Amino acid sequence: MLKVENISKKLGNKMVLENCSLNVKDGSVVGLIGPNGAGKSTLLRCICDVYQSDSGSITFNGETIHENEYLKQNILYLSDDPYYMYNATIKEMKEFYQIFYPQFDEEVYRKYLKAFKLDENKNMNNFSKGMKRQSFILMALAISPKLLLLDESFDGLDPMMRLLFKRAINECIETKEMSIIISSHNLRELEDICDHFAILENAHIETSGDIDDTKESIHKIQVAFKEEKQRSDFEELDIMHYTQQGRIITMVIKGDIEENKKKLNDMNPLIMDILPVNLEEIFIYEMERKGVFTNE
Amino acid sequence: MNSTSTNYFKNLLIRKKKLLFLYTLVLFVGFPFVLIVNLDRGLLSIAEGCFVICLGVMAILATVLPIFTFKFSLTKRHVDTYYALPINREHLFKAHFFAPIVGALLPILINFAIGAVILTFDVSLLKIFQMFLFLLLAFLLFVAVYSINTFFVLRCNSVVDACIITAAVTLCCVFVSGAIETFIQSQIVPNNMIQMEQYPEIALKLLTPMNGFFNLGETMIESHTTWNRFTGFEWGYYVYYLFVGAMAYFGAQKTFKKKKGEGAEQLSEDIFTYPLFVNLIMICLMLMLNLARTDLTGAIFIVISLFVLNFIGNGIAHRSMKVSWPMVIRFVILITVINLFNFASKETEFFGINRFVMDYREFDRIEIRNWNYSADPGYEYGVSFVPEEASENEKALMDLVYDLQRITSLDYKNDEFSIFEGDIYISISYYKDIKVYKTVNYYLNEQEASEFQNQMKRCESFLEEIYE
Questions:
Q1: What ipTM was assigned to the predicted interfaces of this complex?
Q2: Same-domain check for residues A245 and A140
């Protein structure tokens, strides 16, 4: 289990992370979301020991990660633009990673090399962005670390490859209890794969939790009333987002659905529909609530 | 080192196998092959020539390799990968530090071994052994220079800065030595009484371990005919270079262990990077361009030029061409302090050094000559004596030299030191072990000369020659 406790990190004069805490259980996949410059990459770098936090602690299975060679064999970080040696082939990169990760599984490597249709003897310099990403995902799958940190690693992958990668990851989670933290801007993609999420904003982890639980506690409701209503008429509800077109009102409300439905029914609506809400919407409304932007 | 770092060390070498093979091949063509095609000629001279070229190659490699080796700690992409790897910083440093040493030196050693076999046809085994010792000394020096450059590269935050700072490390000795030389020349009375020309050379040698390679090459050629001598080899400097190299190694290791990942591709603001070299070069230039010895127009021109150079230096360091108050204040403080030092030096007659007169009693013989061929009649006076047997008049004559030096020093301080037509020339030669140790010159006006000449004439060893 990864435990990030109250870590803070200052880069130059800017406080990028402030008292951030996060727990990642074994076998869970956490989607790390936040606007640009929120500190997602910094948090991942702190976890994998590229950066050292100014305060707080980061432990994995109870041990400190910093300078812990043995423990770090179970952690792999793939940055948004991973480094590969000049003129290196996939085979050479495999040899490079095999040195540091003794658990590197040759069989898995061969399996996904074939699945991704990559040539291990070809120079990576000539690869497209997507192919480079596939190559590193291939390494990650073959290494199968206990904790995989992916920084926007989906970007540049075609839909087929994303699907393949998701399946592979699910297999790893099932067989090896791998935990994953994925930061991405593509929230729809994260939703399919993540079971937890953490929203990072303004140097803080503003919200985190189980995606399904959150979805159950956040609802998008469309209602229409005989007479025109104002937002102030719904003060009893915890509204995250409110839009109105004539008599039709769309609200995103936090809280128990039955209680909220009852409150609305008491106002005698003409119609009332419960619409599905996705991770992207949760992120947008959460950001809107924090005043990061207005979504009218 | 554990198995991971050992395997990584091997991987670093294997990764460059093509380059290493090419490098080994070039060395083979450059040494053993050259010996093979010149079997009928003097192999020793050829081997020595190759050795000197090899020293040059080592000097270049010791300078550029740290940049290539530690590039991975200077770019964000590399840092993201390397710092996250399951290898601790110390092991990562050691693997990266030692792999290029092995890669650079092992091919040289292999080719030397092949060359040594060929040399046995023409050169004694003892001489070959001596060459081998030279090679080992060169290897150690290579490691020292490589360590020093590594220390400075690791203090930087980007590859560009690493290149600039490496160039500054290599060339700063020229500035320092030049500044010391110019400063001394501008402060010292130019009559040869005080000699300080060794100090710029000492500074140069202390600041550039590269000198060790030159010295090794020179020693190699000097010792051509012997096998058991290292004629002219400066052991003191060599040991000093190794000591500095060892300190630099530990400094580099400590720097690497503490290096922050987030520093990659940021400005290099460490004290051992731009702050050190920009200020050092500015101090050198300010010492060279002494405001106290120029007129107002010249001084203004110098200050403006120095400010522009300081601005450029800071601009490169901060990647921004902006005039900031801290920069201006630093410049003003620096130029004030340096010129106050220059002024104090001038006013105190170079801190009293210019009044110094050598003790003639420490020499084997003193010879004083005074001539004026343009006088009517022309004459040449001479006094020559052994200090131990000096008469009272000869001692009194030497006492006059103290007065002459004092007057000359004062003239120099007051910018009145110049040679006028009609000045009378006096030279004093100090002998040691039959050779002239030093000859000091004075140009005297008629009154000063007359007093000195009268004292010369009183001396027992006085000789004169008159030219009609």
A1: 0.86
A2: no
